[in-house]
Amino acid sequence: MDFKNLLWSVEDGILLLTINRPDKLNALNGETILEIKAAFEQAKNEQLKGIILTGAGEKAFVAGADIAEFQGLNETQAMALAQRGHDIFFAIEQMPIPVIAVVSGFALGGGCELSMACHLRIATPQTKFGQPEVNLGIIAGYGGTQRLVQYIGKAKALELHLTADMIDAQTALNLGLVNYVEADKNAAIEKAKSIINKIATKGPIAIAKVIECVNAYYKDGVDGFATEVNAFGDIFKSEDVKEGVQAFLEKRKPNFKGV
Ligand code: COA
User: Fold this and answer.
1) Which residues, judged by CB distance below 6 Å to any ligand atom, belong to the binding site of ligand 1?
2) Active site residue: 35, 113, 182, 212, which one?
3) pLDDT tens digits, one per residue of 93-138
């Protein structure tokens, strides 16, 4: 796949997707965010175990939406910009395979929001998370007011959004925003690969259903318990369920086919 601001590299069934605008600290301009959309759409058509999303360079995962593009926006354009981001981030959150953000350096504004749309986050000692939009007199527009509450609770989420303070990796770990802190970006990528490889040994239909059901908890108007009951039933239409149960009874490893 050829992109202007993304690097696409697949190795051993794992897509490493790198946001590649290091001179702008990987800020999400319109072009980049549309490329992210296209990349995730393409990824659905590939046989992948999982996706690792990261930022190029040592300084940033993503330092936010591209502030230069906010100049001269009117109300309608601003709403459209936010809606486009929401749609793309929802699509990432609903990917049926694991998506892990390797977050090293600044993850600010849209960068923090993008990482929160991924299923898991792995940080490094260089990581700084923040929602500093109020410094510009604006607010988060890519789901940050909602997802940060979901991850760390109302009190701390309000504090971060209201003060624009940044938090380090250890604080993010303590708050439950990140899953692991590794020594550096390479180690974080290796950790992400090992998690994806572990998940790849499980039933892929079950993995997709886990993601769907956990996401349902946070969807307005959706009964997550009912979603789980339906998903549980759906799974029993698959060959994989027979294989998983039979393999256990025969004391062997299952050979899931994703059907
Ligand atoms: N949008 C557009 N450009 C950005 C950007 C953003 N969100 N964040 C950084 N950049 C650009 C800078 O303008 C600069 O470009 P230039 O070299 O052409 O002038 C380049 O990236 C490097 O950033 P710089 O500010 O020089 O690096 P720094 O190490 O001094 O500071 C930050 C790093 C992250 C603290 C600072 O860049 C910053 O505050 N960025 C904005 C963060 C933000 O508010 N994000 C939410 C946006 S809604």
Assistant:
1) 24-25, 27, 63-68, 106, 108-109, 132-133, 135
2) 113
3) 999 999 999 999 999 999 999 999 999 999 999 999 999 999 999 9
For the entire predicted model, the pTM comes to: 0.97
Q: Given the residues 133, 182, 212, 250, select the one marked as catalytic.
A: 133
Asked if 103 contacts 61 with a C-beta cutoff of 8 angstroms, the reply is yes
Q: Which residues contact 224 (CB under 8 A, 6 or more apart)?
A: 213, 216, 217
Structural domain includes residue 239: yes
Please give the residue range of the domain that contains residue 228. Answer: 204-249
User: 112 and 221 share a domain?
Assistant: no
User: Are 18 and 96 within one domain?
Assistant: yes
pLDDT (tens digit per residue) in 148-183? 999 999 999 999 999 999 999 999 999 999 999 999
The answer to whether 100 and 196 are in contact (CB under 8 A) is yes
